[in-house]
Every structure is written in C-alpha cells, then in structure tokens.
Amino acid sequence: MSMISIRGAITTDHNSKTEILQATKEMIEAIIDSNNLQIDQIIQILFSTTKDLDEVYPAVAAREMGLTAAALMCFQEMYVKGSLEKCIRVSILADAEGLNTHNVKHQYLRRAKCLRVDLMK
C-alpha cells in the first residue's frame, strides 16, 4: 500500500447548495482525473470551508459521486482577516501506487489558484 495526500481548493461565487456541490464535484473530479485515481483508491477526504459557505456539507457531493466507502469529514476553515472568501479546501488520502510527493498533481481551481501560486507555473 502506498499512501499519498492530495490537496485542492476551489471557490464559489455564492453561498448556495447548488454551487457548493457543483464546485466540490469539479474539484474532486479534477484531482481524480489528473492523478489517474479510481474512486476505490480514496480512503479519506477532509473538507474545510470558509465561514461564509454554510448551505450544505461538501461531503454530500462526494457521496453523490459514489464515494461511499471513504471516510469523509467537514470542518470550518480558520478565519483570517482578508483571506480568500467562499473557498472549499480538500485533503484526500489515497492508496495510490506510483504517486509520491514529487509527482502528485494538487488542484487549485478558480480564485483558489492564489493559494498555491507555486503550483501554477
């Protein structure tokens, strides 16, 4: 078993159930596709949202995508004055043979690209 943690983040324009679920799915799909993962390789997903996103748990989107065996938890991101708003962050723990810290492809989408400018080169 080869464990890897994959990070990602995405923003929404509004605090709505539809937008939160759609953005979460987009982010998870981008992580799965860019890292050639299968859903059954995902062991755990930790989600955090900024305090201005409170209409739905992002984990609902993961369950709708078929992630029914993975452990999912949602948290509120620590508030920092002036920080990025309406942001969903994720940390995915996966059993991903062939991936390591040097070739994993983290996904920072939409306005969340500013969180990891080093990855956007």
Named at the architecture level, the CATH assignment is 2-Layer Sandwich
Helix share of residues? 10-25%
Low-confidence stretches: none
% residues in beta strands: 25-35%
Number of domains: 1
Write the CATH fold name.
60s Ribosomal Protein L30, Chain: A
**Distance N terminus to C terminus?**
31 Å
Largest sheet strand order: 3-2-4-1-5
Which short descriptors sum up this protein?
60s Ribosomal Protein L30, Chain: A; alpha/beta
Structure commentary:
This protein has two helices and five strands, in the order βαβαβββ. By secondary structure, the protein is of the alpha/beta class. The protein has a single domain, classed as 2-Layer Sandwich (60s Ribosomal Protein L30, Chain: A). Strand 2 (42-49), helix 2 (59-64) and strand 3 form a beta-alpha-beta unit. The mean pLDDT is 95.
Entry summary:
The chain is of the alpha/beta class and 121 residues long.
Helix-strand layout with pairing:
Layout: E1 3-11, H1 17-34, E2 42-49, H2 59-64, E3 71-76, E4 87-95, E5 107-108
Parallel strand pairs: 1-5, 2-3
Antiparallel strand pairs: 1-4, 2-4
